[in-house]
Amino acid sequence: MYLSLIYFSNQKSHSMDELSPSVIDITILEQDAGFRIDKVLARHHQIGSLSRTQIKRYHADGLVLVNGRIVPLKYKVAAGDRILITIPKAVELEVVPEDIPLDILFEDEHIIIVNKQAGMVVHPSPGHSTATLVHGLLYHCRDLSGIGGVMRPGIVHRLDKDTSGVMVVAKNDAAHHNLVKQFKDRLVKKTYLALLAGYPDYISGSITTMIGRHPIHRKKMAVLERKGRVAISHWQVLECFERSCYVRITIDTGRTHQIRVHMAHIGCPVLGDSLYGGKKAKCDTVSRQCLHAAKLTINHPVSGKSVRFKAPLPADMQRQLLLFQGEEGE
Q: Is 160 a catalytic residue?
């Protein structure tokens, strides 16, 4: 059994005989002048079936050029502007179930709770076409919810590749709908454990910001002053060391890279997080960001009963914690 899917690669140039046109060439007319580029493109007749979300994704990948240069989405077009949109090649993949060992914490006919290992990608994407959590789940459970689409059957939330810990997966569409609504209504309680480079000014605290796509580094998220989406995190320092600390973090929202962005923003990035922590977060004894989803509390999608699931601290973070504790004892 396999699922067939289409995703778009990030290749920048293609021949005309590929599965999608290589370039859309648009010249702005007088009646469209003065409007934001994303709004103009979303309604332009040459765009066809491209959604505004797709246009934003292509823009983020540097595939939308105005007069030969990249402009912000708020750019207001002028008559005569020439816009070139490079459409990435459509690549067909097969999501073939794979016999990947999964750490299953709980399972019934409605949900699966897994302890995702660090290094495992949750679902297929460009560059990760095999050995994802979805591949393993499809092998383990042949009737996963299809509502998430062929790339994400049963997936209602995710963890970054190098973040370990508890995840809930829906086994049918009714459970999927219910869990998605719980996440949307902020009924799900998520608790993380992390090792930080440095330590906050206070032993406990909260941070509320807007988080959105970094204006320059498009593969990163960032704290923004105006745009973005509200993100709320709370921390509690559990133990302090000379140059690091061990913390418990709960989040009210689930923005992409939220904890990593927030901790870096307050000056103490997650240890090992090269993307947001730079040299400060570098540690020779860890090979990934030391972030673990330790606890997840949901309402069971059928019984409605509050259920809590825990994943023990993984071995690499335990070793690092013991190293810090040993240094303090010297």
A: yes
